[in-house]
Amino acid sequence: DVPGKPPSNEQAVNHVQEHSSGATAPENLEPTLSITVVGASGDLAKKKIFPALFALYYEGCLPKNFTVFGYARTKMNDEELREIISRTLTCRIDKRENCDDKMEQFLNRCFYHSGMYDSEDDFAALDKKLKEKEAGKLPNRLFYLSIPPNVFVDVVRCASLRASSETGWTRVIVEKPFGRDSESSGELTRCFKQYLTEDQIFRIDHYLGKELVENLSVLRFSNLVFEPLWSRNYIRNVQFIFSEDFGTEGRGGYFDNYGIIRDIMQNHLLQILALFAMETPVSLDGEDIRNEKVKVLRSMRPIQLENVIVGQYKGHSKGGKSYPGYTDDPTVPKGSLTPTFAAAALFIDNARWDGVPFLMKAGKALHTKRAEIRVQFRHVPGNLYRKNFGTDLDKATNELVLRVQPDEAIYLKINNKVPGLGMRLDRSDLNLLYRARYTKEIPDAYERLLLDAIEGERRLFIRSDELDSAWALFTPLLKELEVQKIAPELYPYGSRGPVGAHYLAAKHNVRWG
Ligand code: NDP
Ligand code: BG6
């Protein structure tokens, strides 16, 4: 499959043969794709999934024959769903040529079915409606579970028993969280596998669909200049930073049961770390890449409590405006110890990375919104220009930054001679700013991931052994934090986070970038 291109009929038929329920596919039928968004009345569906589907349609990436079904308990008809979708199609496409026409065509392919998540009969009724649309074609079905995790298993059971494709493929995209710890995640996987094969499960981590994260492998493996430096020999430390300049507003109820370590570190940041640190895969095949990522995760040293600091934001007033603290949210229990900020030092005990601190920092309600990978290199041995940097040689080391968002960029901090007769050095950037270099807008992560799921490309989805390894790394730490009732260090809303993060970095000879 060529990413970015709609699958040909032949490819679709191949997928059918790989993943069908066993019935023989009539090979001369034209394929059709039915996408069911379960939880269609929810926030994620409106904000991300429908706009991404529309963007794929606009770009000509959806197959010729397709329909989109919304499914949720909320009572509404097709027109009402279309009305909701059209209001929220505020995606990157909406200022483009022919957008209105395309939107109308897209909306005409959208339908709604109201049902309970645990009712086989309701899914059988959905199946009937799907069949009407699929008549005379070879049906492939994609279910997107955009629902809270407590109903994941019910939906998988009902959908696979009563609404899976009889002759084509059936795939299920599952949103996070995949459990709260090793045990619950293992149980979820076990339940899923009663109804689905691993090949049918597409566990989404939308950070893997971000342009700069995808580019990480291209940067490493298709340029000569980076890979030779990519080890303990030249890299002093690596930082994975996630920060949001808003709190858990509106999602406090969900968040309090999970906290920032489960929400961001165990998945988004750890996935990036695995891609960053993996050995060269045998090929670009999804299984080869995921094999290498698992090896990294399995080589990681257990996380020590003394290498972690946790924080929670408190209310703060600034410029006549007041910002609420985390526990001011009525859906958050008073006295909650759930961290909204965490920083941790992790280590990979293998030959390439022995002794290199991998620092993670993730927080909500901080002073800025950004996601970055920062690679700090070692000092130049016997630097001839040492005296030009005074005592602060740290400032003289190179740093490679991949700014995942906002304003995607890759830049390398270098030392440079300030033009002139004297010999003065300063720090400059070799800068690849995406918006200056590329005119085409960057697709949303959900577009890439939906397209991959449609094409059966699993590279950017989490395999169950990856998930197990990720939980095996974080579960003991999460248990320790909970059993010991570690109180998070409070930090004001909109600040740079707890000072403890700086002590943690200093302990490992690191300065946050
Ligand atoms: P919502 O809380 O909006 O739930 C989606 C739909 O599920 C609701 O519209 C509702 O539909 C139904 N629902 C809500 N609560 C329950 C319940 N207790 N029992 C049964 N059904 C319920 O979730 P989101 O859309 O925000 O998120 C969906 C999934 O995606 C979740 O797993 C979430 O963790 C994950 N996610 C969300 C992100 C976001 O930005 N929102 C980001 C990343 C992941 P109805 O009542 O009509 O049946
Ligand atoms: C989600 C988290 O997975 O990612 C949210 O549950 C977070 O808490 C979101 O806000 C951030 O995603 P993005 O793409 O906006 O950086």
UniProtKB/TrEMBL annotation:
EC number, UniProt record: 1.1.1.49
Role summary: Catalyzes the rate-limiting step of the oxidative pentose-phosphate pathway, which represents a route for the dissimilation of carbohydrates besides glycolysis.
Source organism: Kalanchoe fedtschenkoi
A GO biological process held by the record: glucose metabolic process
Similarity annotation: Belongs to the glucose-6-phosphate dehydrogenase family.
Gene Ontology terms for molecular function: glucose-6-phosphate dehydrogenase activity; NADP binding
Domain Glucose-6-phosphate dehydrogenase C-terminal: 218-512
HAMAP family reported for this sequence: G6PD
Superkingdom as given in the UniProt entry: Eukaryota
Start and end residues of each Glucose-6-phosphate dehydrogenase NAD-binding domain: 37-215
UniProt cross-references to PANTHER family, sorted A to Z: GLUCOSE-6-PHOSPHATE 1-DEHYDROGENASE 1, CHLOROPLASTIC (PTHR23429:SF13), GLUCOSE-6-PHOSPHATE 1-DEHYDROGENASE G6PD (PTHR23429)
PROSITE patterns for this protein: G6P_DEHYDROGENASE
Pathway given in the UniProt record: Carbohydrate degradation; pentose phosphate pathway; D-ribulose 5-phosphate from D-glucose 6-phosphate (oxidative stage): step 1/3
The protein, known as: Glucose-6-phosphate 1-dehydrogenase
InterPro entries in UniProt: G6P_DH, G6P_DH_AS, G6P_DH_C, G6P_DH_NAD-bd, NAD(P)-bd_dom_sf
Coiled coil, from the record: none
Catalytic reaction(s) noted: D-glucose 6-phosphate + NADP(+) = 6-phospho-D-glucono-1,5-lactone + NADPH + H(+)
Keyword Oxidoreductase in annotation: yes
GO cellular-component term (any): chloroplast stroma
Keywords for the protein's UniProt record, in alphabetical order: Carbohydrate metabolism, Glucose metabolism, NADP, Oxidoreductase
